[in-house]
Amino acid sequence: MIIGYARPFSQDRDLRLQLNILEKYGCDKIYKEQTFSGKNRPELEHLFHTVSSGDQVIVYKLYSIADSTRHLIDLLQMFQQQNVNFASITDQVDTSTYEGKIFFKLMEKVEDFQHDVLSESTKAGITEAKLKGKTVGRPRKPNYYVRRALDMYQSKKYSIAQITQETGICKTTLYRYLEGDC
Questions:
Q1: Which end of the chain is more exposed for a tag (fewer CB within 10 A), N or C?
Q2: What residues pair up with 85 in beta bridges, in sequence order?
């Protein structure tokens, strides 16, 4: 079965162009989102619940189904696990072909690269800040808040939630102080 998926690219765009092309492509069923929203996509959810092994999902452009590289990779992995092929008409991507499979693997590598670059950049920034004598991370709570939290805990009159709300010391930090790790 060939299943189409369409979503407006912005608030002021309708789906006519996408629907016409998907119909010409021979889609047996087309799921149509009514809004541009990235979070609320009920038709995409319906699509995932109805596709089965051997089906092909077709979109007009990659960004009509995915909001980011990571999102696209996640979607492609879900399709792959269900043995569902995926194609984007204007981007000329088809995971049923050798080239499409290479594209998918390349996308995974690009995402890994982006993650590594961001991680290394963050680590370098932290190291540079430390070398300049800057404090990195959350600012420490004043000692009187810590003492107050420890006193409240040892009095056994207060719950952890009450202690954290009163002092602003989070539960994890409180336990670290109790264990002597701070």
A1: C
A2: 56
Identify the CATH assignment for 2-97 out of 3.40.50.10490, 3.40.50.720, 3.40.228.10, 3.40.50.1390. 3.40.50.1390
Task: Tell me how crowded residue 153 is: count the other CB atoms within 10 A of its CB.
Answer: 19
Residues 6+ apart with CB under 8 A from 31: 3, 4, 5, 6, 43, 44, 46, 47
